[in-house]
Fold this protein.
Amino acid sequence: SGEDFGYDGSIGPSYWGERYRECAGKHQSPININLLHVKQVSLPEITFIGFDDSIDNVHVTNNGHTVLIEVMNEPHPRVRGGPLDGDYVFSQMHFHWGDNDTFGSEDKINHRSFPMELHMVFYKEAYKTMAEAVKHSDGLTVLAFFYELDRHQHPAYDDITIALANVTEPHTSVIMDHPFSFLNILPYDLTRYFTYRGSLTTPPCSEVVIWLDFEQPIRLTHEQIEAFRELRSAHGKITHNFRPIQPIGDRVVFYNID
Ligand code: 1SD
Ligand code: ZN
């Protein structure tokens, strides 16, 4: 169908540029981060607002490409500081994964893939809406977190796993049974991250994203990651939903450490 994109065959990433001009742009995401080429910086501290709140009425949706976690109640969590100018308001979070645990992340570090990646998407408050923000080069920030394997279950992910089992069919949605806290699902160290200018990793691939890739991975078991691979699109199981890396071109990746 007309608006559709996918990760395989004639609707796969190498064809996105034909229908969506920006997907063939020069500042696309994801990228490989080469640690030999990053520029070390010490940016202002990031402030995470509402990340430790207990949030009710959180919706979990299978949109046919990934699983989206959305906050219905106001005020939404927000971020400021680091490389950001002004406040950015939470829009949604979602995940990218691969067929098995050896790949699935979008960005890579020294060509290393991680089995899964979390994207927390925020729009710049000054632009008022997501629709307006995506028209500006500093319109969005995405906080990206990598996953790695652990033998111990991460208890904060139990509620997500339960929700996943109830949204295996595309275009289905559930409300989480328990309050949800952003901080609980994130790694401990939020001070070390890479940041660069890039794009949405899905069509229309708009070059409007200030990416922040946190260095410390989140640790889940193989079984916890498997739960994501049970989700279905209109074409069958969503076994993988990551875009391959794109040329870095003239861009610089900054590495923030205190
Ligand atoms: O893939 C998501 C897409 O679903 C949508 O959330 C978009 C923001 O409107 O962002 C991309 S991504 O670049 O965060 N992968
Ligand atoms: Zn994403």
